[in-house]
Every structure is written in structure tokens, then in C-alpha cells.
Amino acid sequence: MQDAANTFDMPLSGLATREAWLDKVAEVVDEDGYCEVLGDRHAAIFVEEGKTLLVTFETHQGIAALSEDAQPMGWDMVKALGWSSLCLVSDGDTWFRSPRVYGYFDRLVDDGFFEEFDQVIFYGAGPCGYAAAAFSVASPGAKVVLLQPQATLDPRIAEWDDRFRRMRRVDFTDRYGFAPDMLDAAERAFVLYDPEIEPDAMHAALFTRPNVTKFRMRFMGDDLETSLMRMQVLYRVLAQFSADKLGTLSLARLFRARRTDAGYQFNLLQRLTTDQRDYLTVVLSRAVLAQRNGRPFRKAYQAAKARARERNTPLPPDLNDAD
To answer: Rounded to an integer, what distance in angstroms lies between the CA atom of residue 207 and that of residue 303?
Structure first.
């Protein structure tokens, strides 16, 4: 087997079509795994390296947006930690509701594929988080990390989620259907979500299970995966989970990285200014302006200070007229 750090350093960006990308992937993994097309919109990419297997569900578009080299995120763990990687990739958001995908996992189960690894971790975000939960049942005892997952899009259960109306004709009641039920065989699962996004919070509530830990990440926005990767937190979550060190306390410590994250700071600023929380707006703006020059924060700072003095409401005691 070739050295993973060298084999998987090859960039896959700049390829014109999804088919060309899959052809290049197949060439890269030829000696260490395989790339199998599963119908028109799905494929499975396997890389065998170590005894920990990371199963990720990703979209082709997401890979292109999040990776400079257009590589599945599991390849970073192959290079850094020597893990094995199984990436299920879709063309767009499909929630992986495809008989070809069902059949692929059936075959893995029949072949005892997951039993060859000491540890299996399933991961996905949003629609891919739904799939990670749903298909984790194929590997009893697996660990699962889900970012803002949907539990189902069956309108009889989730009619309140009107973000994906086009998917209401898709059957979410047959095999690998209701994602929270599929987690019953997992060793442990973590559901990370922003409770300020009401549909995400409602889906998270459906995942309430004894083996599921839900962790709230307020003001992170509707693309939690991108935010956690920008904060360099996501891979640390997976690594700590692998080492049995992940819990609410360790997640809270990792989440402290938000304090210097521009996306989080701006989301929080929007909420504070909308609610006209002038005292807190001043505190936040000054903290951010001490880190960098941010025009929205300077503007919000001046407006909050003026409004508070006009209303004779409290401001931080160390604030003087020259500020």
C-alpha cells in the first residue's frame, strides 16, 4: 500500500464534470480501494488504510466548495490519522433515497464489511446528516456525528418544514427511512445544531434517544458544517469522538473558537441589533473592534451608544464620552 499522505495529495479540482471527477478519483484510489457508481446520482468511494473507518455522506457540490483540492473530507483523516474512508457522494441533495444506495449497504452488511474495522464513525450534515443517521444501522455499534440533520421529510411527520417541498413526493417510509429510529443500534450519536433555526431545532427534537447527545450551537447560522470547518473544530470533534473523549464539556471547550469567528460574531451582532440590546451590542462591538477593523461593528457600536444615551439606559461603566 502506498503512503497515504502522498497518494491522496493529488488535487481533484478544476475537472469540468462530475463524471471526470469520478474517473480521476477512481484512478487515485485504484490501489487502495475503489470508486463505484451507484446509478445516475450517487457513488461510493472507499480507501482502505487503518482500522478506524470514517463513513461520510457528501455532495459533489459540497466537496467542490469546501475542499481546495476537491477531495472528500474523509481523505484528510486518511492523511492525518491513517483512518480508512468510505465516502457516499451524491449529485445535489438527494437524502440518498435511492434503491441503488440501499442495495450497496445491503451488500456491505452481507459481506461483513464493517466488521473488519475496530471502529466505525458515520458523519453527515443537513441532508447528508439524515443519510448518516439512516444508514448507520448497517453497522451496529457505530459512532455517529450529525450536523443539523433532518429526521425525515415525510409530510405526515415534518409538514412544518417547508424548506424542501420538492422532496415531499419522495418516500421516507420504506427501508432506511426514519433516521432517529436507525440510530437505535449506534453506540452513541451527537446531534449538533443551531436552535435559533427553528426547523433544525424541531428536527433535533425528533432525535431524542438515550444514546443521542444533542448540543446547541447558537448563532452559527444555517451552514454549520462550513462554520465548524472554518473554525478548525470539525476534525477535532471526530478525533475526540474516536478517542472516546467527546462529551458536552469537551464540545463546549471546542465551541469557544466561536469567540474569534467572524461568522459567529456577525450573526450575534445581527440578533443583538434586531433586539436593540444596546449594552450587549456595545460590549460585543468593542471586543470585535479590538481584534480587527469591522465596519458593521463600528456602525452598530455608534448607533447603540447613541440610542442608549438618548433613552438614558445603562452602558458599560468604563465607557467614556471619547469612545
So the answer is: 42
Grid coordinates representing 91? 449529485
Domains parsed from the chain with CATH numbers: 4-260 (3.40.50), 262-311 (no CATH)
Distance of CA 15 to the CA centre of its chain: 25
Judge whether 61 and 89 are in contact, CB under 8 Å. Answer: no
Res. 22: pLDDT tops 80 = yes
Amino acid at 68: E
- Residue whose C-alpha is closest to residue 126's, from 25, 21, 237, 228: 228
The verdict on pTM exceeding 0.85 is: yes
Q: What are phi and psi of 57, to 5 degrees?
A: -115, 120
16: pLDDT strictly greater than 60: yes
Rounded CA separation 31/7 (Å): 10
Lookup: cell for 281 = 451590542
The cell numbers describing 145, all together, are: 456525528
Give 92-125 pLDDT, tens digit per residue. 999 999 999 999 999 999 999 999 999 999 999 9
Q: Distance between CA 144 and CA 129 in Å, rounded?
A: 9
Distances (CA, A) of 192 to 47, 137, 207, 244, 289: 27, 20, 11, 17, 29
Confidence of residue 320 (pLDDT cuts 50, 70, 90): low
Distance CA 157, CA 323 (A): 53
